[in-house]
Design goal:
Radius of gyration: 24 Å
Strand order of the largest sheet: 3-2-1-4-5-6-10-7
Oligomer: single chain
Shape: globular
Structural class: alpha/beta
Number of helices: 14
Strand content: 5-15%
Length: 453
């Protein structure tokens, strides 16, 4: 995109919002399906279209400069998404905190006062991101990896230097809920996430000039349906692609299928929970179904080598290669790394024609408001319900159709999330926000050029 899009009058816009993904560059073209890289750009593309009187600024690495004017005009027709990231990382041999000052100056030079920040959380260093800023006990500066200096430090620097600008963080990954960076003191005002509660940060500095470490700052988290970002703009013809008659004729031994990756290492995540899913799947699937008609149920996903060696019931096969298995399957089990943390998985399974049974630790507070029948007590409860549905085709089809209806048009046209998030921020920041109508922008996540550019 050329510089002509930067010739604008800030006074023409009601709000000025800083955006980006901490720890990564925001990709726009050639996105790999399944990596999660598509969530930020799809979300920002939708809200920029629905809010033409808001101006949005990327402050971290992004791919705007790789777009032609025609491509930019196609994705952002209101021309209200720009990049304030003016740091030429490739030319910086040794990063210091001064390298990020031009980002802050970019706003000062244009007399733009940001109203708030709305970032996606991601991978940043808990040991510091900005070079030549934090010191060791011996007085030497901590050395930071280039990836954190490039993709994490711009956000940390801007959040700290613009400490009077409220920060809102979108967290749609259970591994990254709080922003755990020792060089950050301006913690988010609210985390827009997939669970409710308070999460404690790790150690962080007291202020920019006071590097005394503080531990356990509590940051509020609210369930804001952010898992539904992955539904914005999806091609909604999934019902036509599901062969229910085939499922009704399939053998019960093929009715349950589990699609799940797992670290397999048993490592402990930031909340003290064991993040390995294997023990639960061993309990529920490998051992729990033994002696039943479902005891050949397979788990498909990417796991550590030792897991494949432990059982032949887990295989690394891509979903694209499971057409026959998916065609026969009726049910799946959904389980999260963090108890109570909602994911997109139940909705994904519904669009594939599977009834998502929910593990007792999943959605404990019934935030999804799914049919009560899908919430499980234990393995025996799951077996009993599958047998009941296998014996009653009408009840199975009725429940499947009820699940289909859970995928609302407002999830797909973007209006649900846009209005929910901006109304909440407006409430906290004291301004009025009028609900916006959704937009018809379909994107194909199976195509690397999902926007058609």
């Amino acid at each position: 995109m050329t510089d002509k899009f930067y010739n604008f009058n800030p006074k023409d816009f009601k709000k000025h919002i800083l955006i980006g993904k901490m720890g990564k560059s925001v990709k726009i073209k050639n996105i790999k399906v399944g990596t999660g890289d598509d969530a930020p750009i799809i979300f920002y593309a939708f809200i920029a279209r629905m809010n033409p009187d808001f101006m949005f600024y990327f402050i971290g690495p992004n791919h705007l400069n790789k777009l032609t004017d025609e491509e930019y005009d196609k994705i952002f027709p209101n021309h209200n998404v720009l990049s304030a990231n003016c740091v030429e990382y490739s030319k910086i041999k040794e990063h210091t905190c001064h390298d990020y000052k031009p980002i802050v100056d970019w706003f000062k030079d244009r007399e733009i006062i940001p109203d708030f920040m709305l970032f996606f959380n991601g991978i940043i260093s808990g040991n510091g991101n900005i070079e030549k800023f934090l010191k060791l006990k011996n007085g030497e500066y901590k050395k930071q990896l280039l990836c954190f200096a490039k993709y994490g430090a711009p956000y940390i620097y801007v959040m700290d230097q613009m400490s009077d600008v409220p920060v809102y963080v979108i967290s749609e990954d259970p591994r990254y809920i709080t922003v755990n960076a020792t060089d950050l003191y301006n913690n988010p005002k609210l985390i827009l996430s997939q669970t409710n509660g308070e999460f404690e940060t790790h150690y962080h500095i007291t202020s920019w000039n006071n590097h005394t470490m503080i531990h356990g700052t509590k940051v509020p988290t609210e369930y804001m349906h952010t898992e539904k970002i992955c539904m914005m703009g999806v091609l909604d013809d999934f019902r036509d692609k599901i062969d229910i008659d085939r499922k009704l004729k399939s053998d019960p031994s093929k009715h349950l299928i589990v699609l799940s990756n797992g670290c397999g290492t048993g490592r402990i995540n930031h909340n003290g929970n064991n993040s390995c899913r294997y023990p639960e799947y061993e309990k529920w699937i490998i051992n729990g179904l033994e002696g039943t008609e479902y005891d050949k149920t397979m788990i498909y996903g990417r796991w550590d080598k030792w897991v494949y060696e432990k059982t032949d019931r887990i295989k690394e096969i891509m979903i694209e290669d499971l057409k026959d298995e998916m065609g026969d399957a009726r049910y799946t089990l959904v389980y999260s790394q963090i108890p109570g943390f909602i994911t997109i998985k139940p909705y994904e399974m519904i669009t594939m024609g599977l009834l998502p049974f929910l593990h007792p630790d999943y959605d404990k507070d019934h935030l999804l408001n799914f049919p009560e029948y899908l919430y499980l007590k234990d393995v025996d409860d799951m077996i009993a319900k599958m047998r009941e549905l296998d014996a009653n085709s009408d009840k199975y089809v009725a429940l499947l159709n009820e699940c289909f209806d859970l995928i609302k048009p407002e999830f797909i046209d973007g209006s649900f999330l846009n209005n929910l998030i901006f109304n909440r921020i407006a409430q906290l920041e004291g301004f009025k926000y009028e609900d916006k109508k959704g937009i018809d922008m379909k994107v194909n996540r199976r195509d690397p050029n999902m926007f058609g550019v």
